[in-house]
Amino acid sequence: MKLYSISLQSVRRKKTKSILLLIGLVLAVASVVTLVTVSENINASVATNLDEFGANIIVLPKIEQLAINYGGLSIGEVSYNNSQLNENDIIKISSIKNSRNISIISPKLLEVTTVDGKKNLIAGVNFKDELRLKKWWHLNGNTPNGGNQILIGSNVAFVRKISKNDSIKIKSEMFIVSGIIGNTGSQDDDLIFMDLSSAQRIFEKRSAISLIEMSALCYDCPIEEIVAQVSAAVPTANVTPIKQTVEAKMMAVHSFENFSIGVSLVILAISFLIVFVNVNASVNERTREIGILKSIGFRRVHILQVILFEYLIISLIAGLMGYIAGICSAKLVLPHLSMYSSDKLIVNYAVFWGAVFLSLLVSLTACVYPALKAAKLDPTVAFRYI
What we know:
By secondary structure, this protein is of the alpha+beta class. It has helices spanning about 5-15, 15-50, 85-95, 125-135, 155-160, 195-200, 225-235, 245-285, 285-295, 300-335, 350-375, 380-385; strands at about 55-60, 65-70, 75-80, 85, 100-115, 120-125, 140, 150, 165-170, 175-180, 190-195, 210, 210-215, 235-240. The protein has two domains: about 5-50 and about 250-385, no CATH class; about 55-65 and about 80-240, no CATH class. About 55% of the residues lie in helices and about 20% in strands. The strands form three sheets. Strands 1, 5, 6, 7, 8, 9, 10, 11, 13 and 14 form a ten-stranded mixed β-sheet that branches. A two-stranded antiparallel ribbon has the order 2-3. Helix 1 (about 5-15) crosses helix 10, helix 2 (about 15-50) runs antiparallel to helix 8 (about 245-285) and helix 2 runs antiparallel to helix 11. It is elongated and about 110 Å long.
C-alpha cells in the first residue's frame, strides 16, 4: 500500500474531524483573502479619489534672479532669463513614462486687467479639468458651456454686486456670468475664471500659459519620480510637489494596509493553534495505528510522510475553497466600504497562489511538531495498544 493511500483512508475515516479542520482553515484563509482583496480595492479607490481632490504638483516657468547690493545695501533682485510655458508643454508632460499616473493636467493663464474701472485678476482655464481638480467648488449657477461665459469668485460677486446671468465687460468684450463660486477661503474667491482660449485671445497671449496644476496618482509611483520625469520633459519649468498634500494622501491610503496586516496576523495565529491542537490530539489517538505501522516495517520518515501528506490534502482543499469564499465575501463587503458604491472589484490573481501557500504554510507548520512526536514514538509503548 502506498503512503498517500494510507493518508487518504485516514481522512475518510475521520470525516468529522477532517471537516472541522477544513472549515477552520477555510475560514482563516477566506478571512485573510477578504481583508487583502478589500484592502487593495479600497486603497486603490481612496488613492484615485484623493489624488483627484486637488493638485499635488505645480509647474511654473523657470525664473532666474540676481540679488543687487550697492554700497553694502540690498536694493532688491533683478529677474533675467525668464522662461515661458505654452500648450506644447502639456503635450510633453502627457508623454512622460508615468503619464498613466497623471490624473489631471489643468493649465492656467493669469492676467491682471481692469474690469468696470477696477483691477481684477483673470484666470483662463479649461473648465472641464478645473472642475475635476476642484471638487469642493459649489456653484450657484451653471458650468460655462461657451467661450463667452465665465465663473466669478464669491468676493468678486459681493464687492461688485454681480449676480448670476449678469454681463460684464472684459477687454472690450462682453461675458455672461453663468455661475458664482461659493466661498472657498482661498484665492479663488477673488478671481474671474474664463475659458483658456478666450483669455489667450483677448490678452493676445496665443498658446501662452502662466502655470500648470497637476494631480498625480502617487499610490503606485513615488511623487518624486513623476516630478523628475516632468522636469526632464520640460527643462524650462520649475516642477514642485506639494509634499504636505502627498504625505497626507499616502497616510490615508496606507492606513487600511496596516489594519489588514494586523488582523491577518491575528487570524493566522488562531488558525495555527487550531491546526496544532487538532493534529496533536489526532496523534495521541492514533498511538495504536502508529504501533501497527511500525510493527510491519514502517520507519520514522514513513510515519512522518503519512501524517504530513494527510494534512497536505486538507490544506490544498482549504486554500482553494478559502480563496473562492474570500473573493465572494469581498464582493459583498466592498460596496459598503468603498468611497463609491459603483466601484468594481479588482481581483489580484496572485492572491490565489498566496491563499494556497498560506493554507499549506499554516497547516504544515502546525503539524510538524506533532508529526515528529508521532514518528519518534517508542514501538514498545505503541505495542501496548495492539
